[in-house]
């Protein structure tokens, strides 16, 4: 049985372009993508790492990093990410796929192995630690069988199902699959900590985290992060106001999320207008 991690990476991210090429620690000439690859190499379960990027010319920089770090790479569709993942897994004969996104430079190989172990022991089709979040946000790990990925690739039709790889499995058709969520042990339960990379505020926070932890241990663990946030809780204020992007299924779900964002910004007239649209849609 071949277990491989596929890292989703491109430079044309919407909110923070070229984020996977940013340096961590700042000024180190080590990119976010390199940090992810190096941390995943410490996993005891993963036998192969593939960086899945796009056919865009700009993403040649990502391929250069994959080659430099001596891992495999795959070029596929920019927007059909599900298709990109499936074809990357098929090309590399993976039986079990570990999905990691390019915005998780603090990914913990011990957490990844925990999710993989749970997946194997429960004989699940899909296992993750994000369906009900208990770990810090930025340790996101999804594990799925090749047959489940193949079914999603063959049957998923909606845009949100193709753009985010796994929603067909755990959101659209969960009754077709055995799904398991992994809960954090008590000492790692910190769902309010955000160490993912989507915005400039996230990057500022991560630069601080790496300044504090990386020089002491370049393979710092989740428990080290949690201790840091307990000792210096002000760090969390840096990106506390960031709203996480979501894979939403229906127009009403999108409107509801837009209303929530408008409410946070105090844009009450626009909020009122959207509420009327939502009411019309539900009739």
Q: Name the overall outline.
A: globular
CATH topology of the largest domain, by name, is Spore Coat Polysaccharide Biosynthesis Protein SpsA, Chain A
Number of domains: 2
CATH level-4 homologous superfamily of the largest domain: Spore Coat Polysaccharide Biosynthesis Protein SpsA, Chain A
Share in helix = 40-55%
Question: Helix and strand string, N-terminal first?
Answer: EHEHEHEHEEHHHEHHHH
Strands of the widest sheet, in order across it, are 3-2-1-4-6-5-7
User: How many whole angstroms does the radius of gyration measure?
Assistant: 19 Å
By CATH reckoning, the class of the largest domain would read Alpha Beta
Q: What CATH architecture of the largest domain do you see?
A: Alpha-Beta Complex
- The CA-CA distance between the termini, in Å, is 50 Å
Number of strand elements = 7
* Low-pLDDT residue intervals, each spanning 5 or more residues: none
Q: Which percent range describes the beta-strand content?
A: 5-15%
Average pLDDT value? 92
| Largest sheet: number of strands, sense, barrel closure | 7 strands, mixed
Helix count from the secondary structure assignment: 11
The helix/strand class is alpha/beta
Overview of this protein structure:
By secondary structure, the protein is of the alpha/beta class. It has 2 domains: 3-188, Spore Coat Polysaccharide Biosynthesis Protein SpsA, Chain A (Alpha-Beta Complex); 251-282. It has 11 helices and 7 strands. Strands 3-2-1-4-6-5-7 form a 7-stranded mixed sheet, with helices on both faces. Helix 3 (81-91) packs across helix 5 (146-155) and helix 10 runs antiparallel to helix 11. The relative contact order is 0.12. The mean pLDDT is 92.
